[in-house]
Amino acid sequence: METQARGGYNGKILRVNLSSNVISEETIDELFCRKYLGGAGFIIYLLWKELRPGTNPLSHDNKLVLALGPLTGIPLPGSGRNCIGAKSPLTEGITKSEVGGFWGAELKRAGYDAVIVEGKADKPVYLWIHDGEVSIRDASILWGRNTKETQQSIRTELGDNRIQVAMIGPGGENLVRYACIMNGLYDAAGRGGLGAVMGSKNLKALAVRGRKAPTIVERTPVKELREWLLANMQLVQAFHEFGTGAAMRGFEATGNLPIRNFRDGLFPGVKMIDAQAIKDTIRVGMDACFGCPVRCKKKVQVSEPYPVDPAYGGPEYETLAALGSNCGIDDLKAIAKGNELCGAYSLDTISVGNVIAFAMECFENGLLSVKDTNSIEARFGNAEAMLKLIELIARREGIGDLLAEGTYRAAQKIGKGAAEFAMQVKGLEAGLHEPRSKPGLGLGFMVNPHGADHCCNLHDNLYVVEGQMKELRALGILEPVPVEDISPRKVALFKLIQLNRIVFDSLVLCQFLPYSLEQLADVTAAVTGWDTGVMEQLKVAERILTMARLFNIREGFTAADDMLPQRFFQPKTDGVLADKPLDPTKLEKAKSYYYAMMGWDTSTGIPTPEKLEELDIT
Length: 618
Ligand code: SF4
Fold this sequence. Notes:
- The protein is α+β, with helices and mostly antiparallel strands.
- Helices cover 38% and strands 12% of the residues.
- A six-stranded mixed sheet has the order 2-1-6-3-4-5.
- Strand 15 and strand 16 form a beta hairpin.
- Helix 7 packs antiparallel against helix 20 and helix 17 packs across helix 19.
- The model has no long low-confidence stretch (mean pLDDT 96).
- Bound molecules: iron/sulfur cluster (SF4).
- The site of iron/sulfur cluster has 13 residues, from loops.
């Protein structure tokens, strides 16, 4: 099948070596596209094949891969995204992160399906990719600038305000291990420290502009799916009205809201920081990604006591919980300011919130003092402390240098039992969801190759009533599964949802859109011209997940790394989970069931030779 795909793909990967300044193009054939689909699939394959084991993530040997899928840039809501991956400076394993906005759609129009950046420039540079032409340009005057200044400066220099920019701010330049890459000013490839990888290559930005419409073999099914969504907007009404964060009061009531470093269960201040409070107080508008009618992205504005620029959007759920309840902070304006700072400096708000909560708990327990913290009273609830710490982290100044290493490394350096307060798996700080109320998600935190990620995961509360099971019956999950269940039937549900998420991340579609697996397979068939279906797409996801597992095993990860922080096996201090810790024995059993269902050895988690053969992984 060494033919170029007919639709959906440009058939070309751009490779840029910043050490040698060599720019080249490679073609991809239809078989490669079918085996790995795009996005997460392309990234994991390329990193598995091209990175040497033991590569230092912040060295010139690491590679940054930005990839699109066959649906990227087509006229379908949710299709503007791209996926970015590398070996993570935070976990030292594989990482990938999906990001919205317009950059992905623009790269498709510029003529590529992926960009591989390797080597290291000897001075700051940015890439300019437009209509099949590529150049490496001087970014010396951009180094040290925030993302807003960077985006505007590049657009002015190149004379086009419609250029889409993926970039880093000072956090990435200063190699904060959880720096993110920003697509524009409010869409982040947040997790795993991809911004630090960019910074380590002296790469400030990738600026993109293109005018070539994506190829679509059969347009009618795409139009029909778009019309289906428009006719069923009630399915995404909450996102449309509030963005994320509307359910935070319910999260507190059910125990799902992380409070003071995942320690506590009650937080009456939640009503002052949720999406309803934002709508009632500081929201000035809603915005959208490429071609999306959901328009779920908040914009907020504050004038005092902290000016907050609406150009940086507004805090979504993960940020509200990370900088808010998880730090014991109910000051919405301060959280909005923290969100703006993280966008300007290119820092992952999830890791930032976890790291600051970790520092606060260390401080309150005497493991850090004002001598260590640049005289900051780093206590839960101190909003000023949270904002000062973000500034120090971005610049790696004083205590910021230690905290820029992430909770795992900071805990090792502090010692004295600080590891108890590091809420991370494999080095990645936990998404703001509570395994004690969602054990299936806890299993996902344990086994996900890139650590405690909430996106490529199951949210147990979504599959507890009949109405939500419709799509899953055809795939063998016949009945709702109770939230607290962690038996093999929950593991089977988790596996299916995890594979489903990887299909989204490889087609590179927004997970907020309620497309079924069948709809995804049908629209892929229409765009590419392939005779494909759900079974093939799930098999691709299994191949990708198994390959990510192999990458980590090659780096020395074992089943012991598939482990939750001990805190989740203890009760919360108060609230509905005050007497409901997770049972470690049940979670270990669930892990073993999962390995078995994936065709991996039930005790070591190593994929069996038969599974590798089945998935055609060589
Ligand atoms: S639902 Fe929201 S995040 Fe997803 S594509 Fe639409 S606007 Fe972007």
